[in-house]
Predict the 3D structure of the following.
Amino acid sequence: MITVGSCNSNKNRSSFSSVGLTTDGRIKPDVVALGSGNFVAAPGAGNTGYTTGSGTSFSCPMTAGVCAVILSANHNLTPRQVWQLLIQTADSSFAPNRLRGWGLINCWEAVKLAIPKTLDLKLLIQGFYKPASDSMVGDSIRVFLRSNSSPFAIVDSAKRYLNFSGNASFIFYNASNGINYYLQIIHRNALETWSKTSKSFVSNHLSYDFTTDSAKAFGNNLILSGSKWVIYEGDVNRDGIVDLSDINLVYNDAINFASGYIGTDLNGDNFTDESDLLLAYNNAINIVSLKRP
């Protein structure tokens, strides 16, 4: 629900009214739309010409129309997400104020941002991947899109299930075409891994394959398994390094015959045993650790 201001052609607010309730009590209006000198269809039977009109009676329905166009581009958006798209693409989004809120709405930019972006990812997980059959035990991972400049803020995230080939498509709603993002990979017991460089979506699509070269990961932080490069495993406690603390966790579960979907199962067979312990041990003695920008 959005508070809308009315502004003239010089972008100065003259008054404001609301579409529903305000979403942010600190700044009103949220956005502004032209309310002065708008071209509108002239009234009267048989009239095919245009005239002009002014006032919030125009700015509010114009904003409501933009919201409708945004939802036609992506009907899965929540009201809060629509509001976020409006303020994010308005012309004062980086310096909101009580005169114009986040600024003059921009329908074109808001709609472009509303269209979901798809990442087609290929990724293999060390213990889960079997080079003899060139297949992997499927599992879920989360991908974070990170800004390409420090402090590398999170822009969006999505969770999907990697199939036996290590493929999955991730849908993002807060990403933009032409903007570079790092890919940050999070798995239940693998080492956090980042893409070598930041990448951008083109025409709402991005493909990235971690398996073809160690250089696909930041710091070349991959290990060769057969002919494919895979992400390291064994960071059971998620502290960014495979070490004795992780070995102890795997060992304790192994001697207790732990089973199921658990973090100490490093090969995806739903049991924690000596094969998982050996994998954690080998990575620990090689001081495998997180590498990020």
About this structure: The chain has a mean pLDDT of 87. The longest helix spans residues 56-73.
